[in-house]
From TrEMBL, chain A:
One of its GO terms (cellular component) is plasma membrane. It comes from Jiangella ureilytica. It is an enzyme of class 7 (translocase). Keywords: Cell inner membrane, Cell membrane, Membrane, NAD, NADP, Translocase, Transmembrane, Transmembrane helix. The transhydrogenation between NADH and NADP is coupled to respiration and ATP hydrolysis and functions as a proton pump across the membrane. PANTHER family: NAD(P) TRANSHYDROGENASE SUBUNIT BETA. It comes from the Bacteria. This is NAD(P) transhydrogenase subunit beta. Its main location: membrane. GO terms for molecular function: NADP binding; proton-translocating NAD(P)+ transhydrogenase activity. Its EC number is 7.1.1.1.
From TrEMBL, chain B:
The transhydrogenation between NADH and NADP is coupled to respiration and ATP hydrolysis and functions as a proton pump across the membrane. Keywords: Cell inner membrane, Cell membrane, Membrane, NAD, NADP, Translocase, Transmembrane, Transmembrane helix. Signal peptide: none annotated. This is proton-translocating NAD(P)(+) transhydrogenase. InterPro entries: NADP_transhyd_a_C. It catalyses: NAD(+) + NADPH + H(+)(in) = NADH + NADP(+) + H(+)(out). Residues 8-89 form the NAD(P) transhydrogenase alpha subunit C-terminal domain. Its EC number is 7.1.1.1. The lineage of its organism: Bacteria, Bacillati, Actinomycetota, Actinomycetes, Jiangellales. The chain crosses the membrane at residues 6-23, 35-55, 61-81. It is a multi-pass membrane protein.
Length: 456, 107
C-alpha cells in the first residue's frame, strides 16, 4: 500500500489531467491546459519514486533520459508538416509500454485477482494493437508505404479469425496466468493492429490515430487496474473516453462514420482512380496570366492544402496575399476542417506564417464567400475541393463536406502534377472549363506569382 | 468496499468526466487536443517505473527499462509537441521568427 501523502499527490495529478483536457478544448486556455497536464505528469512520476520501494534507480533514471532527450528534441525539431506521424509514433510507443508493463506483471500472476488478470490480458492485447496500428499509420503518413487502402481477398475473414484467436488466447492467458501465452497474445495483437489499419485510406488515417490514441488510453487504464494505481486508471480512462468522443467528432467533420472508415475498403468502394481520365486536356497557364487574373479580381479565396505545407510555402502565400490586398483585392483563406493531414493542421501552419486569424474562414463562411468570389486559388489541395464528394455516390469521398471552389467565377490550381490527391481519386474540377492550372512546386509557383504581380 | 470495486467506481466516473470535458470543441483544436490526450497516457511511465523498480532479475529489468524508455518518449515528446502546436495559436511573435527559438520544453 502506498503512503497517503502519495495518494493525495496522485489525486492532484488526476485533477491536473482533467483540467488539462478541459483547457485544451478552448483556444484561449489551450496552452495553459497543456502545461498543467505536463505538471501533473511530472508530479506523478516524481511522487512514484518516493512512494514505492524503487530499486535499480540509476538504470531507471538512465532509461528516462534515453527516452526524454529524443522525445523533446524530436518534438521541437520535426517539421510541422510531419507532426501527424510524430503524434502517431508517440501514441504507439505508449501502447507498447503499457503492453510490456502488463506482461511483466504476469510474472507474479498468483498474486493477481481475477479482475486484474482480465485487465492485464486486455492491456497486452489493446496495447499491442495500438503499437502496431500506430506503426502502420506512421509508415503511411511518412509515405514509406502507399497511402491507398490495402486489401486482399478474404481480408475480413483473416481479420475476424485473428480477433477470435486473440479472444481465445486472452481467455487462456487469464485462466493460466502464463507469461508465454501473454507474449503470444501480444504477437497476435500486433498482427491485429496491422490488419486493422492496412485497409484504411490515407485521408482517413488521422481519424485512426485518434482511435488508437483512445485505445492506448484504455490500455493504460487497465494497466492501472492491474497495478492497483488509481492515477493510471483515471488518466487512461480520461484519454480513452475523451479520445472516443474526439474520434467521432473528427469523423463527423469529414462526413464519415468510424465504422465506414475502418471497414469501408472491405466493401469494395472503387477507390482506384484509373489513369484513363488523366489523358484528357486541361488548360494550363503561366504565372503572368494567373497574376493578372488575381490582380484584377475583386475577391480571391485561397484554398490551402497539404501541398502548400510540404513546399513550406505558407510565408510566400502570405506575401502574395499582402500584395493583393495592397491592390484592393479582398482575400480570405478557406480552411477545410481536415486541410493538411489532420483537423486543425492548416490553422497551425498558417498561424506559423503569422496569417491574421480573421482571414481564416471556416468552411461554412468560406462556402458562402466562394459563391461571390472571382477566383478560387487552390494551392496544393485536391480532395477537399473535389465535387465528386457532392455528386458521385460511388466515390469513396462521397458525403465528405467540401469547399465549393467550383462555385467561384474561376478556379486556379497550383499543382505539382496531374497526380490524384491523398485519397487517390481523380478530380473532375481539374477538367472544368473555368479551371486554369499552374504546374510546379507550390513555393516556386507562388514566388513566380509574387514576382509577376510586383511587375504589373 | 474491496479494492477492485473501488477502482471500478473510479473507472466509471472517469469515463463520464472524459466524455464531458471534450463535449464541445471546435475542429481547429482537434489536433492539439488529440496530441495533449496522447501525452497524458504517457503517464504509463509511472507503471513502468514501478515494475522496473521491483524487478528482481536481469531479464525483467531489461524489458521494464524498455517500457520506461517508450513511456518517457510518449510523455515528454507528447507534451512538447502539443506545446509547440499551441505556441502558434498566440500569433504575437515577430513576423521574421521563422524558426522557433531553441527553448527546452515544459517537461
Amino acid at each position: 500500500m502506498i503512503p497517503v501523502w502519495a495518494q493525495v499527490c496522485y489525486v492532484v495529478a488526476a485533477v491536473c489531467f482533467i483540467l488539462a483536457l478541459k483547457g485544451l478544448a478552448s483556444p484561449k486556455s489551450a496552452r495553459r491546459g497543456n502545461l498543467l497536464g505536463a505538471f501533473g505528469a511530472l508530479l506523478a512520476v516524481v511522487v512514484t519514486f518516493f512512494a514505492y520501494d524503487i530499486d535499480n534507480l540509476g538504470w531507471i533514471l538512465l532509461a528516462v533520459a534515453v527516452g526524454a532527450v529524443p522525445g523533446a528534441l524530436g518534438a521541437r525539431r520535426v517539421a510541422m508538416t510531419a507532426m501527424p506521424q510524430l503524434v502517431a509514433l508517440f501514441n504507439g510507443v505508449g501502447g507498447g509500454a503499457a503492453a510490456l508493463v502488463a506482461i511483466l506483471e504476469l510474472r507474479h500472476a498468483e498474486l493477481l485477482s481475477d479482475g486484474a488478470l482480465v485487465a492485464s490480458a486486455f492491456t497486452i492485447l489493446i496495447g499491442s494493437v495500438s503499437f502496431a496500428g500506430s506503426a502502420v499509420t506512421f509508415l503511411k503518413l511518412q509515405e514509406l508505404m502507399t497511402g491507398r487502402p490495402i486489401t486482399f481477398p478474404g481480408g475480413p475473414f483473416v481479420f475476424g479469425g485473428v480477433l477470435v484467436a486473440a479472444l481465445g488466447l486472452g481467455v487462456w492467458t487469464v485462466a493460466t496466468g502464463s507469461v508465454t501465452l501473454a507474449i503470444i497474445l501480444a504477437l497476435v495483437g500486433l498482427l491485429a493492429g496491422v490488419l486493422l489499419v492496412l485497409p484504411v485510406g490515407g485521408a482517413d488515417v488521422p481519424i485512426v490515430i485518434s482511435l488508437l490514441n483512445a485505445f492506448t488510453g484504455l490500455a493504460v487504464a487497465a494497466g492501472g487496474y492491474v497495478l492497483e494505481n488509481a492515477l493510471l486508471l483515471v488518466a487512461g480512462t480520461l484519454v480513452g473516453a475523451s479520445g472516443t468522443i474526439l474520434t467521432r467528432a473528427m469523423a463527423r467533420a469529414m462526413g464519415r462514420s468510424v465504422s465506414s472508415i475502418l471497414f469501408g475498403a472491405f466493401k469494395g468502394g472503387s477507390t482506384a482512380g484509373g489513369g484513363e481520365a488523366s489523358d484528357r486536356p486541361v488548360r494550363s497557364a503561366g504565372p503572368d496570366d494567373v497574376a493578372i487574373m488575381l490582380a484584377y479580381a475583386r475577391r480571391v479565396i485561397v484554398v490551402p492544402g497539404y501541398g502548400l505545407a510540404v513546399a513550406q510555402a505558407q510565408h510566400t502565400i502570405r506575401e502574395l496575399v499582402d500584395l493583393l490586398e495592397k491592390r484592393g483585392v479582398e482575400v480570405g483563406y478557406a480552411i477545410h476542417p481536415v486541410a493538411g493531414r489532420m483537423p486543425g493542421h492548416m490553422n497551425v501552419l498558417l498561424a506559423e506564417a503569422n496569417v491574421p486569424y480573421e482571414q481564416l474562414l471556416e468552411m461554412d463562411t468560406a462556402n458562402g464567400q466562394l459563391r461571390t468570389a472571382d477566383v478560387a486559388l487552390v494551392v496544393g489541395a485536391n480532395d477537399v475541393v473535389n465535387p465528386a464528394a457532392r455528386t458521385s455516390p460511388g466515390s469513396p469521398i462521397y458525403g465528405m463536406p467540401i469547399l465549393d471552389a467550383d462555385h467561384a467565377g474561376a478556379i486556379v490550381f497550383l499543382k505539382r502534377s496531374m497526380r490524384p490527391g491523398f485519397a487517390g481519386i481523380e478530380n473532375e474540377l481539374l477538367f472544368d472549363p473555368k479551371t486554369t492550372l499552374l504546374f510546379g512546386d507550390a513555393k516556386a509557383s507562388l514566388t513566380a506569382l509574387v514576382t509577376a504581380l510586383k511587375s504589373l | 468496499m474491496t479494492e477492485g470495486v473501488a477502482l471500478l467506481t473510479v473507472f466509471v466516473l472517469a469515463v463520464f468526466v472524459g466524455f464531458e470535458v471534450v463535449s464541445k470543441v471546435s475542429s481547429t483544436l482537434h489536433t492539439p487536443l488529440m496530441s495533449g490526450a496522447n501525452a497524458i497516457h504517457g503517464v504509463i511511465l509511472v507503471g513502468a517505473v514501478i515494475v522496473a523498480g521491483t524487478a528482481d532479475e536481469a531479464g525483467v529489468l531489461v524489458v521494464a527499462l524498455i517500457a520506461v524508455v517508450l513511456a518517457t518518449l510518449n510523455l515528454v515528446g507528447g507534451f512538447v509537441v502539443t506545446d509547440r502546436m499551441l505556441e502558434m495559436f498566440g500569433g504575437t511573435r515577430p513576423p521574421t521568427a521563422e524558426v522557433a527559438p531553441a527553448k527546452v520544453g515544459g517537461e
